[in-house]
């Protein structure tokens, strides 16, 4: 079922000029988005007379998002450079696996911050948690902005995961279907 898989076949699929340019553009776009997410989150703080100072360090989901954003920025930069190196071009599975991992990490951090934002905005009255955005409005606004940037970063990595999957699996022939076994009754 395997096609003639060699480095030239994988390299040939990668040299689709528009796909290669789009791939690199998405990787380079992910870097400033991730850096902006980190900057907005790390510098976000608000003091309240009644409740005290709130910073991103108080919320583990925000710390996780900063960590994942740093990983995304570093990986996107390294992968963009490596995508133009002939040795790595022929190793499509490296990009496939790493793009999948980064996309999954990004969506988990998006989910964690969305939960924090939801609880801060709506509260959980059944658990005796009041909403916090009325007291920390500026903090919540910056969390929302960082979350939107992080979602855009996820979209970049989702598309990159699709592109790398196309590249990794396009070297295989489609499955063989025996026409005699498919005939209807």
Description:
With about 180 residues, the protein is mainly α. It starts with 6 loop residues before the first helix and ends in a 16-residue tail after the last helix. The chain contains six helices and two strands, in the order ααββαααα. The protein has one domain (about 20-170). Residues about 1-15 have low confidence and may be disordered. It has a two-stranded antiparallel sheet. Helix content is about 70%, strand content about 5%. Helix 3 packs antiparallel against helix 5 and helix 5 (about 90-120) runs antiparallel to helix 6. Belongs to the Casparian strip membrane proteins (CASP) family. It is a multi-pass membrane protein.
Q: TL;DR?
A:
This protein has about 180 residues and is mainly alpha-helical. It has helices spanning about 5-15, 15-40, 60-80, 85-90, 90-120, 135-170, and strands spanning about 45-50, 50-55. The radius of gyration is 22 Å and the shape is elongated.
